[in-house]
Amino acid sequence: RDTITNADGEEITLPEPVGEELPDGGFDAGEEVFQAPSPGAQGDVVIASGSERLQRLEPFAANPREDLEGLPILLKAKGKCTTDHISMAGPWLRFRGHLENISGNLYLGAISAYTGNSMAHDVLDGDTEMSFPDLAKKWDEQGVESVVFGDENFGEGSSREHAAMEPRFRGVRAVIVRSFARIHETNLKKQGVLPLTFVDPADYEKVQEHDRVAIRGVDALEPGKNLTVELTHEDGSTDSFEVRHTLSDEQIQWYYAGSALNLIRQRAAA
Fold it and tell me: Is residue 130 exposed (0-12), middle (13-18) or buried (19+ Cβ within 10 Å)?
C-alpha cells in the first residue's frame, strides 16, 4: 500500500522507500586475527584449572573383540526420543567443550517405558529412583557398562554429536531400537557404540526393566550379518531375538578401535 489512514480518517501518501544498494564506504574488511603456526612448531593446549567449559579428553578405550554379557538396561525409551531428549540444548550448550559436565543432561528428556516419566530405577541398588544422567554417572563411576533400548526413529532432530559422545562417555555399549534417525545412527558408530535394530519390532515388548542383556556375534562382526540378543529376566527365564546392524567394513574397524578418531590416529602413527 502507498497510502494509510490516520486516526482522524485522513489518508496520507507514503513516500516511495529508498535505500543504498551498496555502502558508500565499501564493505568493512574486518580484522585479521588468525596467526599461522611456524612449520614444525609444537605447543601445548592450556586449559585453566577448574574450568567448567573445557576439559582435556583421553581417547575412548578400544572395544574388545568379544561378545557383550550381563549388561543392565540404563533406559528403555518410550515413544519419541530426539537428540534433544538425549542431550538437551539451551543452557547445557555452554558445556560443549566439557564432556563430563555436559553429560549431566544425558537422556534427561527421555520417557521411560517403565516409569512413564523421565526418572529411572537403579536396578542394581534396590530400585532407587533417580534421573537418567545421575544413574548413568553412578554406574559409570562403578565401572558398570549398560545398554539402551528405544522406539521408532530414535535420535531424530539435529545432528548433535554430543548425543552419541555422552552415552559412550558414560559406558553405553549398544543402543537397540525399532528404527534410527540416520545421522544419529552414524554418530553412534563414529563414537564406538553399537547401533542395532530389532529384526522384529515386536521384540521391543520383551525387554523387561530388570533384564540382563547379552549380545552375541560382537566378537566377529561382518557387514550384513545379524547379531543375537539374549535377555535374562529377573525370574531366571530367557528370551532371545535377532538384531541387525548397518556397519560397513570400515565402520566395524571404528568399533573395534573404540572410535573413528582412534582408527585415524592409529593409521597416522603407522
Answer: middle
Greatest alpha-carbon pair distance for the chain in Å reads 86
Question: How high is the pLDDT of residue 265?
Answer: 94
**pLDDT of residue 31 exceeding 70:** yes
The more confidently predicted of residues 270 and 238 is 238
The span from the CA of 241 to the CA of 231, in Å, is 9
The three cell numbers of residue 194 are: 553399537
Tell me how far CA of residue 213 lies from CA of 69, 164, 238, in angstroms: 6, 20, 10
Over the stretch 136-183, which tens digit does the pLDDT of each residue have?
A: 999 999 999 999 999 999 999 988 999 999 999 999 999 999 999 999
Instruction: For the beta carbon of residue 68, count every other beta carbon within 10 angstroms.
Output: 21
**Could you give the C-alpha distances from 183 to 82, 110, 199, in angstroms and in order?**
12, 19, 20
- Print burial letters for 190-206: b (CB count within 10 Å at least 16), e (below 16): bbbbbbbbbeeeebbee
End-to-end CA distance of the chain: 70
Q: Quote the pLDDT of residue 138.
A: 98
Residue 257 CA neighbour count, 13 Å, CB half:
19
Shortest CA distance to 256 belongs to which of 192, 168, 175?
Answer: 192
Residue with cell 537428540: 83
Q: Where on the phi/psi map is residue 105: left (φ > 0), alpha (ψ -120 to 50), or beta?
A: alpha
Fill in the DSSP letter of residue 201.
G
Q: Is the pLDDT of residue 24 over 90?
A: no
- Confidence (pLDDT) at 173: 98
